[in-house]
Amino acid sequence: MYNKPLADEIRPSSLDDVVGQQHILGEKGMLRRIVESGSIPNMIFYGPSGTGKTTVARIIADRTNRTLRKLNATTAGISDIKTIISELDTLLTPGGVLLYLDEIQYFNKKQQQSLLEFIEDGRITLIASTTENPYFCVFNAILSRSTVFEFKHISAADAEKAAKRAVSIMEKRLGVEARLEDGVIKRIGSACGGDVRKAINAVDLLFSTGKPSDGVLNISLEDALAISQRSAMRYDRDGDEHFDSLSALMKSLRGSDPDAALHYLGRLIEAGDLVGACRRLLCSASEDIGLAYPQAVPIVKACVDSALQLGLPEARLPLAEAAIFLATAPKSNSACMGIDSALADIRAGKTGPFPRELQNVHADGTGFEREQGYKYPHNYPHHWVRQQHLPDVLKNAHYYEYGDNRIEQAAKKYWDEVKK
User: Fold this and answer.
1) Contact indicator for 183, 223 with CB cutoff of 8 Å
2) I want to staple 335 with a disulfide (CB 3.0 to 4.6 A). Which of 93, 164, 203, 290 is the partner?
3) 226 CB-near residues (< 8 Å, 6+ apart)
4) At 182, is the secondary structure helix, strand, or coil?
């Protein structure tokens, strides 16, 4: 029986066959130019799984005169590194070693440091791949000696090309003619979530479960839908996808785009990240709507409380209500800017003693040069009286600027009249 995975058989052997990644592998792409030059530096490939990182590393290895060694950091350890190091300067590695280290984020600092000396003197050329941000998970000394290339999600159109190629290979492998119902390839391309490997595996499964008749294998759209009932949406609660989803939701709310807000909220709901969605909605109510619509905070809090009590899937209803409300509400970041300005002064050491008028009355008669002298605002017209509240070093500081929305402008007009 033929057991070689289709994803391995279909793996491209040249850069021209790699789908997607035109920003680095296109005609003028920097990575293509590096590979074609033959002078291979240390590199780190960063991006989601199924986007071609391993494939490109293998193509590079085939073009060099160096001995290829491969390690996966999920299973390898210091002993595996020592074995590779022991081969250096021997007949086993006459031109040095090209080390492809997959999932480098699973190597700790000590394991990564063990490679440093040999990367530095050029006996080992490192090509590492990671699905996590290398600036967070790769040791700085390794990072500074490497060039980082980001591999991006594969588009649905590119995934469809890979699926068509997979169909062609499976036809030859099984000696059958595949007749695909309209929409099968499109479904596979859209449901793979930008992961070429998932698209190819879907084709493999459709052929494996089908029953040819007279040399013809009919593949229905119903079967394609059955193997991809849930879109292969990328999401990692501890990785970039988690933080990117939260960031995209927040920025869509701030940008007053209810459609985008619902989309990213939907991603979080589909991933089951109820807490993350609730926190972003609550934050936006104060950070982005703020004093333009102060009632936003209790309204969103009520929606969030309802969602947490209901749980999924019903939680989607109050959360959607909150997202649409926030996206369409008037915006003001005056409170956010005000507190951040005040904190900047405090962190810069601009504090000073409290004005005498604001100190607690317990200080009266205990050696101070004068009584407190606090003026009680409610004893004056409009419940306001001019007196200094900030410390002397900051007495002219100005943190809050009224927003240009109706509510804050009404407040500004009122206090301008009172304080003039």
Assistant:
1) no
2) 290
3) none
4) coil
Q: Are 205 and 227 in contact (CB under 8 A)?
A: yes
Q: Which of 283, 282, 246, 262 is nearest to 327 (CA)?
A: 262
3-state secondary structure of 154: coil
Residues 6+ positions from 93 with CB-CB distance below 8 Å: 66, 67, 87
| Distance from C-alpha of 59 to C-alpha of 317, rounded to nearest angstrom | 49
Q: How confident is the model at residue 68 (pLDDT cuts 50, 70, 90)?
A: confident
Asked whether 155 and 51 are in contact (CB, 8 A), the reply is no
| DSSP structure string for 212-255 | -BTTEEEE-HHHHHHTTSS------TTSHHHHHHHHHHHHHHHT
Report how far residue 57's alpha carbon sits from residue 140's, in angstroms, rounded to the nearest whole number. 22
Q: What is the pLDDT of residues 184-233, one digit of tens each?
A: 898 888 887 778 888 888 888 888 888 888 888 888 888 888 876 555 55
Residues 6+ apart with CB under 8 A from 82: 114
DSSP conformation letters of 316-366: HHHHHHHHHHHHHS----HHHHHHHHHHHHHHTT---PPPGGGS-GGGTTT
Output 304-308 pairs: Cβ under 8 A, ≥24 positions apart.
304/278, 307/274, 307/278, 308/274, 308/278
Cβ pair 74, 80 in contact under 8 A: no
> Distance (Å, rounded) from C-alpha 61 to C-alpha 55?
10
pLDDT digits (tens, 9 = 90+) for 109-130: 888 888 888 888 888 889 999 8
Residues 6+ apart with CB under 8 A from 378: none
Phi and psi at 92, nearest 5°, equal: -70, -30
Which of 198, 267, 260 minimizes the C-alpha distance to 237?
Answer: 267
- Which band of pLDDT confidence, cut at 50, 70 and 90, is reported for residue 1? very low
To the nearest 10°, the Cα dihedral for 392, 399, 402, 254?
-160
The closest of 11, 15, 16, 20 to 157, measured between CA atoms, is 20
d(CA 346, CA 344): 6
* 3 state SS of 396: coil
Please say if the pLDDT value at position 415 is more than 80: yes
- Answer positive or negative: Cα dihedral of 131, 283, 328, 298: positive
**How large is the average pLDDT for residues 403-410?**
93
For residue 177, list its beta bridge partners: 216
Query: Is beta strand 124-130 parallel, antiparallel or unpaired with respect to 43-46?
Result: parallel
